[in-house]
Amino acid sequence: MADDSIAVVDLDRCQPDRCNYECANYCPPNRTGKECITLRGEDTEAGDPDQIRISEEICLGETCGICVQKCPFDAIEIRNLPAELSDDPVHRYGENAFALYGLPLPEPGRVTGILGPNGIGKSTAVHALAGELVPNLGDHAADADWDRVLDRYRGTELQNYLKRLIAGDVTVSRKPQYVDRIPDQFSGRTRELLERTDERGDLDRIVDRLGIDPVMEQPIESISGGELQRVAIAAALAREADFYFLDEITPYLDISQRMTVARLIKELAEDENRSMLVVEHDLAILDLLTDSLHVAYGQPGAFGVITDPKSVRNGINEYLKGYLENENMRIRPSRIEFEEHAPRTSSTGNPLVDYPDLYKSYGEGEFELTVEGGTVYESEVLGIVGPNGIGKSTLAKLFAGRLEPDEGDLDFRLDIAYKPQYVEIDQPMRVDAFLSSITDDFGTSFWNTEVAQPLQLERIMEQNLTDLSGGERQRVAIAACLSEEADLYLLDEPSAHLDVDQRVQATTAIRRYAENHDATVMVIDHDIYMIDLLSDRLMVFDGEPAVRGHASRPQEMRAGMNDFLSDLEVTFRRDERTSRPRINKPGSQKDRQQKRDGEYYYA
Ligand code: ADP
Ligand code: ADP
Ligand code: SF4
């Protein structure tokens, strides 16, 4: 008996009419006549009578796991729960369903962050804090009862919050994670969407700060993802609420937009005494924005634990280290490390292309791009940084021969595999069919190790492209791009909607791919940690978005970061314990000193 383990059956995957109950046939307790895996029968709240249930009392736990291996549809998850989890769950969705442990604490006047993977119960927690879900404390058969919840949290700050919530004194405003879905739910102009949220009379100022003015009269379905993200943030912040929940604020935004959003959120907390709860995977922004941090860990889809609040610095450091100190909990086998000094100063590969100075204009009064000539090497990962709308994809089209430069000759034409910033895959096709149509390597052990595993594709292979979440779609799109035969792989914002661990794994996959294939990879991203972990060298774009852009010659990391960050007037210091880069407070002593020294990143 393993009472510290959890058995989760995904009822969308369990298909007893197609499997012959392999799980039950092989389950060791079942084979000795015990009723460990049984049929649900007519009287369960969820699932078909023929689907299975697993007794967590009888199950031998993760070390057995035979049914997990036997199930042809990956419907079963058996996990040992950390011994440190002494309490019952806060909520369990049903028998053999996801269990959530711990709740975050929204605090007036403060920005509280949650750091952790997708699928770990963050939205479940927010449903509870918004009063839309009465936590059942693990007893899914019990009637909803707030008094039991209050009892559980007696004497804690959360109890005060919950009391006000139950009394109807807490109003909630939220920004959803996947802004791409907004046009499905709303049709009309941006102005119409935003005006109905203007409950605090602050909309005009927010619109101005976020630079949304140019799209106010445009239909929502015609605006870009980056614009949609800012509109959604404006809509959430314009409302009158006590508790604001923002599920990811950075996808599709460039760094200065990210910092503006962070400032707006902080001001609303501090000046208006509101509680802000933010889920975010861009660690530099999370660090800058939040006053305290809950780390979320567990097994996505099976169980999630939300820790008590930590200081932001400790929370991020412990997360990167993979070890939570107060909880005495290892959440990852290895630590994520940053190099303190500018790492690789030169590339070792052969030149892929030498290109001269280039000039391209889209016509009189239209956007124009100047490019400083340079060399791109094989086997290198070239980071590309700069604002949105500054000419990055224009340069890719010049390299691909899809556009001709007005000045400068390109005597090559590269095959470019391109992952766009906004991933739109909407064929009604399964992931495995889609990927095997791109590469003959699909399914080989090499491809599995290099691409499928690090991008966590195994569990989604049989799903339809149209049913994927934003993060899943991103991972499939990265895999599709890397699976193509090409001279140059160009990935535009691969970090969007990936959680921190997925970003690190995607980084490893991309780097390893470049090295093993003598491939050249260019990665455009606005997550400075991802750029740092990925890049051998940097190409910096500056100028005025939508008007004129300038691309620097590829430079070594230190010079590139200085070039880029001096434009933004942002400096980073190093965390003493982990060497992790942290954004300096503008005007602080370190900020001023580093600006004087011209050392913006590797100080
Ligand atoms: P996050 O916000 O961290 O991505 P969620 O709180 O949305 O995670 O979901 C956590 C887990 O709970 C997911 O595996 C999801 O499948 C499961 N889940 C969410 N809602 C329900 C529900 N109504 N019934 C059963 N399982 C659910
Ligand atoms: P980035 O990739 O840095 O976001 P792009 O290269 O896509 O930037 O675009 C730079 C600018 O050029 C944008 O303002 C965009 O609207 C404009 N642009 C892109 N393609 C065309 C085109 N075919 N005709 C006119 N303007 C264009
Ligand atoms: Fe049976 Fe549990 Fe082993 Fe699955 S993990 S086969 S339910 S004992």
From TrEMBL:
Asked if the keyword ATP-binding belongs to this entry, the reply reads yes
Instruction: Output the Pfam families linked to this UniProt entry.
Output: ABC_tran, Fer4_RLI
Regions of compositional bias (Basic and acidic residues) in chain numbering = 588-603
Q: Which residues form the 4Fe-4S ferredoxin-type domain?
A: 50-81
SUPFAM superfamilies, alphabetically?
4Fe-4S ferredoxins, P-loop containing nucleoside triphosphate hydrolases
Give an example GO molecular function. ATP binding
| Keywords, comma-separated and alphabetical | ATP-binding, Nucleotide-binding
The segment annotated Disordered runs over 575-603
Which residue intervals define the domain ABC transporter in the entry? 85-325, 353-568
Protein name in the entry = RNase L inhibitor
Q: What is the lineage of its organism?
A: Archaea, Methanobacteriati, Methanobacteriota, Stenosarchaea group, Halobacteria
